[in-house]
Specification:
The chain is α/β, with parallel strands linked by helices and 534 residues long. It has helices at 2-6, 9-19, 60-67, 110-116, 130-136, 170-180, 195-200, 205-229, 287-294, 315-318, 348-356, 379-388, 395-405, 412-424, 443-455, 476-491, 502-505, 512-524; strands at residues 30-33, 48-51, 83-86, 97-98, 120-126, 148-153, 186-193, 232-236, 261-266, 277-278, 282-283, 309-311, 323-328, 359-363, 428-433, 461-467, 495-501, 528-531. The chain folds into 2 domains: 2-101 and 397-531, 2,3-Bisphosphoglycerate-independent phosphoglycerate mutase, substrate-binding domain (3-Layer(aba) Sandwich), CATH 3.40.1450; 110-392, Alkaline Phosphatase, subunit A (3-Layer(aba) Sandwich), CATH 3.40.720.10.
Length: 534
């Protein structure tokens, strides 16, 4: 076994890190070095880089540090001119080629429909989730629509991990909702409580319980304010997390789940409750049509989702409706209590809602949110489908299909990078997440890039791996690295030359000290040295 490990230096280094108490998510950088201790495979002027991650909102900060010569947040190498390819569009201002552009423009979303009707809407979240209630909910459109206000409540930055402050700023989100509900000009509110999703990815059962209870408490505050304002409230979620915290063998699963999510309709007047009826068999694409139905507005023809309302009171009985959607990020629904940290928490508000008010569940994973069959949900796909009101093929599905059909291996952006590196005698760097389950990327995509690099006879091929625990079994990173190092040896081409935890690489809150750690690893080879096995 030890002889096998010696063939895979990065795999061995990460297993040693586990023994020293490190984990995948926050792994300090490891850098491959030659016999003289010199780092191998650093980014050099003119090199070509393929960032094979998906999504993009967590990838932008690192890309900016690598591309902008006048980058302002920490010192960067002025003469580093990289040729970058991103798997999908991360941001329109990045000077990068894009391998897979969207197959369709997502228009006529819930937010755009309300805007066209002249209705004022307010989106509220912690800054940690601002991109979801803005960019993804609006169909991957960054700028607010006319009449749309976005309120980002600052996420605490005084702790390294949120299990040390599991309440995060849920009270601040609730405060903003309560204040905004006093504005009679607003007809639609959408608020996200981030705690369960964010804290649920950390292996700390007590912290997750506190996160669930913080959400429940502030949910109650918002519901009371909505009742006073005469506003209909919808309580739902985008995917599951902590309701299925254990694998069947009892080991901990800190990832997302394939569970359905709750959908509860709370009218402002108790006497109205019996007049509302919901159907079953719904999915997240039904949320937007339901909101429009509540507002007595027709849905756009492009929305294939269906309203969940079977019965509602006559509008004239209670006047024009206004609607608040409270999204409890990561709150999956599961009746079984084994490994269910939500069921084990003290949640009197949510318990009462499910007993007293119209309640159903929505599918929030797999094909229902444009993902491969059987895969877990995530915040990106969840918010996108809630806002779009129809199924949108995910980037993962599009790329998987391109690999199956062979088009991946003729992609112009990939061929540009590989041919450029070979023609100019430069290195080709593949950089991204190492995971079968992450919403940020796939091992299948990386393996396809390795195959393409061999076909293109790329000489200097280097892989820079980012590890993460989300959705993975404990210490899974080393197993994936072993798979990659074996593949590269079989191909007789390339090495893993850097490994780092995604905590340092995939930031979206301008924690520039984290991004700088990744930058200096990639460019200067800073990190714990791992000797190349030859």
């Amino acid at each position: 076994m030890q002889e096998e490990l010696n063939k895979y230096p990065m795999t061995e280094a990460v297993r040693e890190a586990y023994q020293a108490g490190e984990d995948d998510e926050t792994l300090e950088p490891r850098v491959l070095v030659d016999p003289g201790g010199k780092p191998i495979g650093r980014f050099r002027d003119g090199d070509y880089v393929i960032f094979y991650n998906l999504r993009g909102e967590r990838e932008v900060e690192l890309c900016r540090s690598l591309l902008e010569p006048d980058f302002p947040y920490f010192p960067v190498k002025k003469d580093l001119r990289l040729n970058l390819v991103t798997m999908i569009p991360y941001h329109q201002e990045l000077t990068a080629r894009v391998a897979f552009s969207p197959e369709e423009e997502i228009r006529d979303t819930l937010s755009e429909t309300l805007s066209r009707r002249g209705l004022k809407q307010v989106k509220i979240s912690e800054s940690e989730k601002a991109v979801h209630v803005g960019f993804f909910l609006n169909g991957k459109i960054r700028e607010p629509f006319p009449g749309e206000e976005r309120i980002a409540v600052p996420t605490p930055k005084d702790v390294p991990q949120f299990d040390q402050k599991p309440e995060m700023n849920a009270s601040g989100v609730a405060d903003a909702v309560i204040q905004s509900l006093q504005d009679p000009r607003v007809h639609f509110w959408f608020a996200n409580f981030a705690n369960i999703d964010v804290v649920g990815h950390i292996e700390n059962e007590e912290a997750i319980r506190k996160a669930v209870e913080a959400v429940d408490t502030n949910l109650g505050r918002c519901l009371e304010a909505a009742r006073r304002a005469g506003v209909i409230t919808v309580v739902t979620a985008d995917h599951g997390t902590a309701e299925r915290w254990l694998y069947p063998d009892g080991t901990i699963d800190t990832g997302h789940t394939a569970s359905p999510v709750p959908f509860i309709l709370v009218p402002p007047r108790p006497e109205e409750t019996s007049l509302w009826k919901l159907r079953g068999g719904g999915e997240l694409t039904d949320v937007a049509p339901t909101v429009l139905d509540l507002l007595d507005m027709p849905k756009p023809p492009v929305m294939t989702g269906r309203s969940l309302l079977l019965e509602k009171p006559i509008k004239e009985s209670f006047g024009r409706h206004r609607v608040l959607v409270l999204l409890l990020d990561g709150w999956g629904y599961r009746a079984e209590t084994y490994g269910n940290l939500i069921a084990g928490a003290h949640t009197p508000v949510m318990d009462e809602l499910q007993k007293r008010f119209p309640f159903t569940t929505l599918e929030a994973s797999g094909e229902a949110v444009g993902l491969p069959k059987g895969t877990v949900g995530n915040s990106e796909a969840g918010h996108l489908h809630i806002g779009a009101g129809r199924r949108i093929f995910s980037d993962r599905l599009i790329i998987d299909r391109a690999i199956r059909e062979g088009r991946f291996f003729h992609n112009d952006a990939f061929l540009w990078a590989m041919r450029g590196a070979k023609r100019e005698g430069k290195s080709l760097h593949l950089m991204g997440i190492v995971s079968f389950f992450s919403s940020h990327g796939s091992m299948d995509h990386l393996m396809a890039l390795f195959k393409l690099a061999k076909q293109g006879t790329v000489e200097n091929l280097y892989h820079h791996a980012m590890l993460g625990r989300r959705g993975e079994r404990k210490q899974s990173g080393a197993r994936y690295l072993a798979t990659i190092e074996k593949e590269l040896q079989d191909l007789q081409r390339g090495k893993i030359v850097s490994v780092i935890g995604r905590y340092w690489s995939l930031d979206r809150e301008e924690n520039w000290d984290r991004v700088q750690k990744t930058y200096r690893m990639l460019v200067y080879g800073e990190g714990k040295k791992v000797r190349d096995s030859g």
